[in-house]
Write a structure and sequence with these properties.
Helix content: 10-25%
Radius of gyration: 13 Å
Distance between the termini: 23 Å
Number of helices: 1
Largest sheet: 6 strands, antiparallel
Shape: globular
């Protein structure tokens, strides 16, 4: 199977030890993920949000590192866990 690219908007909420990730939202395109992340960052209870993409083969579970598309508000400086 060919590699697929997933676009995701991920909100972050404030916590005692920084920020914690919320529920990810899969989007249709990079621009849709960026728009969704911007809205999520402004939503009450969220400190920020990021839009990112991941490309890989879901059948074998191999994915390349996430690519940050855009960050809004207060998000972790290390996003290597995406």
């Amino acid at each position: 199977m060919a590699d697929l690219t997933y676009y995701v908007a991920l909100p972050f909420a404030a916590a005692d030890d920084g920020v914690v990730p919320g529920e990810p939202a899969e989007c249709q395109s990079a621009s849709a993920a960026i728009r969704r992340a911007e809205v999520l960052a402004r939503t009450s209870g969220n400190a920020g949000a990021v839009a990112f993409s991941r490309t890989g083969d879901p059948l074998i579970g191999e994915f390349h590192d996430a690519v940050l598309l855009k960050a809004f508000g207060d998000v972790p400086s290390d996003l290597s866990e995406l």
